Amino acid sequence: MTDMSPKLQPVMRMQNLDKVYPNGTVALKNLFLDVHPGEFVSLLGPSGCGKSTALKIAAGLAEHSAGRIQRPGEDEAKGIRARAGEIGFVFQEPNLMPWLSVFDNVYLPLKLAGLSRTDAAADVAAILETVGLAGFHDSYPRELSGGMKMRVSIARALVTKPKLLLMDEPFAALDEITRNKISQDLLELWQATGSTVIFVTHSVFESVFLSNRIVVMAARPGRIIGEIGVDAPYPRDASFRLTQDYAAHCRDVSGLLTRAMES
Amino acid sequence: MADETAALPETPQKRLVERPSRLTTVLRETGPTVAAGLAFVLIWEISVHALGVSKFVLPPPSMIVVSMVGDFPYLMKALAYTAGITVAAFAAAVVSGILGGLLLTQHKDVERMLWPYAIALQVTPMVAIAPLVIIWVGLDRVWLGLMILAWLVAFFPMLANTVQGLKSADRGLQDVMTLYQASRWQRFRHLQLPAALPYILTGARISSSLAVIGGVVAEFVAGSGSSTGLAWVIVESGTMLDVPRMFAALFILSIFGLAIWWLTSMVQARLLSRWHESELGGER
Ligand SMILES: Nc1ncnc2c1ncn2[C@@H]1O[C@H](COP(=O)(O)OP(=O)(O)OP(=O)(O)O)[C@@H](O)[C@H]1O
Ligand SMILES: [Mg+2]
Questions:
Q1: Are B179 and A95 in contact (CB < 8 Å)?
Q2: Is B142 helix (H, G, I), strand (E, B) or coil?
Q3: What local confidence, expressed as pLDDT, does residue A165 receive?
Q4: Across the 263 residues of chain A, what is the mean pLDDT of every consecutive 10-residue run?
Q5: Which residues of A touch B277 (CB under 8 A)?
Q6: CB count, 10 Å around CB of A22?
Q7: In what order do the strands lie in the sheet with A213-218?
Q8: Could you tell me the sign of the dihedral formed by the alpha carbons of A7, A9, A10, A14, in that order?
Q9: Which residue of B has its CA nearest to A85?
Q10: pLDDT higher for B95 or B221?
Q11: What is the pLDDT averaged over residues B195-211?
């Protein structure tokens, strides 16, 4: 029998993924995760449950020990590696080159891909405009606030128009006011670009506000213990935080997280 | 109940940003230095006369100036010789130190192979190998021996700083390069090299003053008649008991050392101007 439903091919597929660090730590065990085009998925779990590890493997920054992974644009059977720029990564720290201006930091991925500065200028300017840094092309990272640095980092991740955007607790170091503002901007950006996001966070509230699917992980060994869909429509703004729906989802996710901590 | 309409006492209004003129800045920066120097020279002059110190022990500054003016061409020729050797040795140390650092960081095995010998070179006292080097190059080419000796002293800080700098690139920034599949050359050009630059420049500053010291000590060791640099002027004047000229040569040597230090600092400030903490002058 063939499946008749118009199923979209997942952007990222992890099957039975294991990760054992050289020192013997089992960071991930039998991880299954499919992420579909246009989704905003949050990975939520206690500290040390392997969220960063999963994301690094997804980005190709770490090797997995066993299992299979399918990245966007990658075809293991044909031996095709993912192209640089198919995946964007926003790290917990902004990770900007201190010797490059804001413009040149965002230009860097395109430069590494061989694009000249003049050819890239329009794209770089456009993405800086989108993240609200139009007037800061010539500033250096040290001249920016924490929130602005994070915006530069997001712009750099988006400038290659990636199929998949990975974010590892990107707003953890920001104050609440900045975090709320930037979260909302991120949602707008995500909708405008139609990209797919995997977002790692510690915060139940942040995950409910942002995502349409929340995947909860437990530690030792790192594994997925459940997931919760958030079907509230987008665009979501600050008023969403005041709804019954939001509160109910927060309660559900908290419950699942508590189970993750106990297991 | 507090009266909320009561005005606070007036405080004198400050200009938001005080931007002093260039002249004021220069005066503020150099004024105290010059004043301290002048005061020192003045006290020296007065005490030498007041206490009746012999000019063979400590000549007054005025006498040193007279000697400096009188022997000016002779002293300048000596300076040119010393400066030539120092600058050449320094340039060689910079080039070889950076190239050596690149070589050592290529592979862990290369480092294991060569690093201990680099340290051995560093801990062997230069004075001890100086006679050997002078013999090797031959007495008719003492300048080459001096240059090699000064280079030997100046080389190591350059090498060590380059190695440390090339290894210092931040992990997070390396991840960015890996994510975008940067080639080995791109990684070097866009991450390792700029990250190493502050270390390399610090190495160059240390190495520049060591080159001066190395050049002078080598000249002392090389000894009589074989050289014509400032160190030799000091030795020669000493044997002739021309103490004012000794001091004159000494001052010129210090000023030369300062000039080199200042020059390398300028280059450092220029290259790191906007991004590196060390050049932001405590501005927050
Ligand atoms: N390089 C490494 N070598 C050995 N063990 C590691 C390494 N990196 C992570 N681990 C271990 O793997 C497990 C998962 O780590 P990971 O950083 O993925 O957790 P996390 O869920 O991101 O935690 P947090 O929320 O605190 O960031 C932890 O037990 C950690 O100690
Ligand atoms: Mg983490």
A1: no
A2: helix
A3: 93
A4: 55 90 90 92 92 92 89 73 84 92 94 92 90 89 91 92 91 85 88 90 92 91 91 88 92 91 81
A5: 142
A6: 5
A7: A87-90, A164-168, A196-201, A40-44, A213-218, A223-229
A8: positive
A9: B180
A10: B95
A11: 91
* Identity at B45, one-letter amino acid code: E
Domain-located, residue B263: yes
Q: Are B276 and B194 in contact (CB under 8 A)?
A: no
- Would you say the ipTM is above 0.90? no
pLDDT, residue B59, reads 86
Searching chain B, which residue's CA lies closest to the CA of residue A60? B179
B276 and A111 within 8 Å at the Cβ level: the answer is no
Strand partners, A166: A89, A198
- Its domain, for residue A221, covers 2-86+164-174+196-262
- What is the length of chain B? 284
Strand order in the sheet with A26-35: A26-35, A12-20, A66-70
* CB of A46 less than 8 A from some CB of B: no
- Asked whether residue A50 falls in the same domain as residue A168, the answer is yes
- Contact call for B172 and A97, based on CB within 8 A: no
- CATH number of the domain encompassing residue B88: 1.10.3720.10
A28 shares its domain with A70: yes
Are residue A238 and residue A251 in the same domain, yes or no?
Answer: yes
Which residues in chain A are closer than 8 Å to B178, comparing Cβ atoms? 60-61
